[in-house]
């Protein structure tokens, strides 16, 4: 499928390689001591450490969440207010170290740390996966989970 144009899942952002994303994710994991807090089942601690940077983690109860998102999304990042919104059960499961919930939280943090903004792009070139905000955020989350010792079968970071 070489000639098939890449279908963006998210918005088009400046391209990043997996190596660049991986370095950023590993730095975040290290600086915020994610491994230590995972062991303590206190991932809420590193999330709280984001607040001095003006970053808000907005935890919503299930009723609010369904009302605002129609249950269509598992998490949300607003680049204008630097707010990550999460449903309560995802937040609590992530804090306790649940892999799938952590993936959702780290995906949203990926959008934040990688500086994703809604840009109005006009380009004659077709987008590539490296410019896809969703691919970048997923890659960020995968690397973080890898640093925490979770095995993800789709990962192949032999070159890092
Ligand atoms: Zn996303």
Which strand order does the major sheet show? 1-3-2
User: Could you give a short account of the major beta sheet?
Assistant: 3 strands, mixed
Kindly provide the radius of gyration, computed on alpha-carbon positions and rounded to a whole number of angstroms. Answer: 16 Å
Shape, principal axes of CA atoms: globular
Number of helices: 7
Q: Name the average pLDDT.
A: 90
Structural class: mainly alpha
Strand content: 5-15%
The helix/strand series, from N terminus to C terminus, equals HHHEHEEHHH
Terminal-residue CA separation: 26 Å
Uncertain runs with pLDDT below 50, 5 residues or more? none
Bound ligands, each once: zinc ion
As a percent range, the share of helical residues equals 40-55%
Total beta-strand segments: 3
Question: Can you tell me about this structure?
Answer:
By secondary structure, this protein is mainly alpha-helical. It contains seven helices and three strands; from the N terminus they run H-H-H-E-H-E-E-H-H-H. The chain is globular and about 50 Å long. The two termini are 26 Å apart. 31% of the residues are buried. Zinc ion (ZN) is lined by residues 10, 107, 111, 134, 137.
Can you summarize this structure?
With 160 residues, the protein is mainly α. It has helices spanning 18-31, 34-39, 44-48, 62-69, 88-95, 99-113, 133-147, and strands at residues 56-60, 76-78, 83-87. It has a three-stranded mixed sheet with strand order 1-3-2.
